Amino acid sequence: MSTARLNDRLTRQQPLILGLFRIVLGLLFTSEGAATVFGLLDRPASPVGDWPFWYAGVIELVAGALVLIGVATRSAAFLSSGIMAFAYFTEHQQDGLFPLQNGGLSPALFCWGFLLLTFFGPGSPSLSGMLRRAQPGGAVVGQ
What integer pLDDT is reported at residue 104 of this predicted model? Predict the structure, then answer.
């Protein structure tokens, strides 16, 4: 198979792979939020109203679910990227420059992954894409 044909095949799969990336990232982020808010997965729950951890957990839970299903993906991803940057610089950066030194690998990866979704959108399949195809005119708000 020639390089050009391989590139064409890979390019055709970009929306699907982006959608799978969005689903996995959303699921992982939702599980982080659920663990923080409800005390799941061997993690104690953060006390209600505890700044910033409980609030971050709620944002992770809600925004992660929106990203997971593909509704308001760009907005939810932008918010998620921002809170992960905040978490990295306020909780981890003081312990060293590099994420491997300061325990901030997860926030750094989440931040950049969500920033990617902010610019590239939800891919396919997404609930917003399904709704767009189901409606005459095809416009979807908050993709």
Answer: 96
